[in-house]
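thought: fold this chain, then report.
action: predict
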Amino acid sequence: MTLPRIKVLALGGTIATRPDASGAMQMGLGADDLVAAVPALATLAAIDAETVSRVGSHSLGFDQIHALAAKIAVLDADGVIVTQGTDTLEETAFLLDLLLDRDIPVIVTAAMRNPALTSPDGPGNLLAAVRVAGNPWVRAHARALGVMAVMLDEVFAASDVLKIHPTRLNAFAAPQTGPLAALVEDRVVPLALPVRDAMTHTRARIGDVAGAREQPVALLWMGLDEPGFMLEAMLDHRDQLGYRGVVLGAMGGGHVPERIAPLVGQLAGLLPTVVSPRAGAGGPMLRQTYGGPSSEIALRKEGLIWGGRLQPLKARVLLETCLRGGLDHAAIAEVFDAWG
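observation:
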C-alpha cells in the first residue's frame, strides 16, 4: 500500500514552543520536532516536514500568508498540513482559502496546550490532521471542502471556523454550520460539505493578487456610547491615517450609535467601509427592517458595504484581499453581497 505524501509546513505558535530557563514558553521547535513527537505519523503517511518560520501567530502578517499560499500552490504532495499558533488561525485559514484552489487537502492545525503542560494537544491535533489529509472521502472532495482547520478531533471549514475562547482546549467551533467531519477511533466520519458559492464567486472576482502591495484595513468595534474620535481622526487626516479600508464591528443586525452615524456616512464616502456583525458567531445581518439614521436601511443608503455572514475578523481579511486585487467600491460591495 502506498502511503499519501503529506507536506508539513510549520510556522510556529504554541504547538512549537519550549520552556526557557525561567520556565516561560518561547518559540523554538521546528517541523521535524513536531513530527518526531508523533511516531504514529509514519504509519499514516510519508511525511516531508519544513520549518517556514518560528513566530507566534499574533505576529504573522498578510504578506507571510500570501507567500505561504504561493508555496502551497506549487507543492507536489497529496496533502498539506500547516501548523501555527491559534491566535489568528481563523484569519490565516480563511486567507489561505481565498488564495488557494487545489484538489488536495490543505489543513491548518495548532495547539491550545503547550508541550510543557500535562496532556498537550499539539501531537494529537497533528495526528488528526494527517489522518484527515489521507482520508479517501476528504481527498475525493478536497476542492469542495476548501481549506480546513482540524482541532480537537473536529474538522471545520476555513470560512466558518472561529476561536470562541482564549484558553480552553475546545476553543474552536463553527457556530453557524458545525463541523465538516469528526474523528472517532481511527476513522474520519463525514458530516457535511460546505456551501462554497460565495468563495467561488469571490475568487473569480478578485483574480490573481500575487505580488500586490498590502492594503491596511482598520478594524473599529462599535460599543455602547462610542464617541467616534477615531472616525473623526481618520476623516480629518488627509490620508485617512494610512488606511485603505475600514471594517466596523456593528451592533445587532447592523447598527451603530446614532451620534456617530454622520461620521460613518462620511467615512464611507472616502474609503470602502464594511459593516460586519460584532455578535460572536457572525451571521447574516438585517437589510431592511429598522428605520432611523443609524439603522441598516440608512447605513446601506449611505454607501456602507454589508458584510453578510462574515464576522469582523474575516471581513477584514476579505476586504484587504479585495483591495489588493484593485477592486473598486462597487466591485467590493458585489463580493461581500455573495456572503449573505
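thought: worth noting. The mean pLDDT is 97.
final: C-alpha cells above.
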